[in-house]
């Protein structure tokens, strides 16, 4: 019984890690898409390098919001 618990726990850990990697990949791809197509007149990387705090807060909140949306959509799958 102890070994089965370890195996099931490890498989659950690997499954959640896989979902986290997929979610992170999707979030980064969506951020790149929005950066190139929606905010094409604003160079977000240049603004971040120049120390623009408003852009850094926007970028971090954008990633958090995408993560919440992906998390909610994956919660219905599992």
By DSSP, the count of extended strands is 0
Order of helices and strands: HHH
* Uncertain runs: none
Oligomer classification: single chain
Query: Helices and strands: which structural class?
Result: mainly alpha
* Rg estimate, integer Å: 18 Å
Shape: elongated
Give the CA-CA distance, first to last residue: 25 Å
> Strand-residue fraction?
under 5%
The profile of the biggest β sheet is: none
Mean pLDDT: 84
What fraction, in percent, of the residue positions are helical? over 70%
Number of helices: 3
Protein model, in words:
The chain is mainly α and 78 residues long. 86% of the residues lie in helices and 0% in strands. It has helices at residues 2-37, 44-49, 53-77. Helix 1 crosses helix 3 (53-77). The radius of gyration is 18 Å and the shape is elongated. The relative contact order is 0.10. The mean pLDDT is 84.
Question: Keywords, please?
Answer:
78 residues, mainly alpha, elongated
Secondary-structure map:
Layout: H1 2-37, H2 44-49, H3 53-77
Structure summary:
By secondary structure, this protein is an all-alpha fold. The chain is 86% helix and 0% strand.
């Amino acid at each position: 019984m102890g070994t089965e618990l370890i195996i099931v726990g490890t498989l659950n850990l690997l499954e959640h890690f896989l979902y986290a990697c997929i979610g992170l990949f999707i979030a980064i791809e969506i951020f790149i898409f929005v950066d190139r197509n929606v905010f094409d007149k604003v160079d977000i990387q240049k603004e971040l390098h120049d120390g623009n705090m408003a852009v850094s807060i926007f970028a971090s909140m954008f990633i958090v919001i995408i993560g919440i949306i992906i998390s909610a959509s994956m919660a219905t799958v599992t």
